[in-house]
Design goal:
Length: about 160
């Protein structure tokens, strides 16, 4: 039985499919949802870190970064907060208890940490399908979560 489902949200094409799968499971098990988005420089659509792709370093939170760069990150963060709010509204209309949070840092670590502290029974997440050098350099979030999560993990494929 699953009572608390953590949904890892990102900007990949599969994001909506991950959410829909989590909603279906929540309906079937009368579970609640926690939607999580982790701000990452590696994510599609992020302003990134000029000249330093693939690092879990967050210079936009420092006081000495250029204001236009900080504005790009603020817009990126706001975009995802709006998405999270709309997904919570969608789940609520479907009769599911849902909430959201947004954090920054390592995506895999944040997902596993929140799953443990929130007491999740299941993590639902997508897989980008990186392989070869891309996975070696940037890592695989789903692989990390599968090996470090304190609960069951459902990886949704396209």
């Amino acid at each position: 039985m699953f009572y608390k489902i953590l949904v890892a949200m990102d900007s990949s094409e599969i994001g909506k499919q991950v959410f829909d799968e989590a909603v279906s499971l929540a309906k079937a098990f009368h579970a609640s949802l926690m939607l999580l988005h982790v701000l990452s420089a590696n994510e599609e659509g992020s302003p990134g870190i000029p000249g330093m792709p693939g690092l879990d370093y967050y210079p936009w939170r420092r006081d000495d970064v250029p204001s236009d760069y900080r504005q790009q990150w603020d817009a990126f963060e706001s975009q995802y907060l709006a998405l999270l709010r709309s997904r919570v509204d969608e789940a609520t209309k479907a009769g599911i208890s849902a909430e959201f949070t947004q954090s920054l840092g390592s995506r895999g670590e944040n997902i596993c940490d929140l799953a443990q502290t929130w007491g999740a029974d299941l993590i639902v997440m997508g897989r980008r399908g990186r392989s070869g050098i891309g996975e070696l350099v940037l890592g695989s979030v789903s692989n990390y979560v599968l090996h470090h999560a304190s609960c069951s993990v459902l990886v949704v494929h396209r």
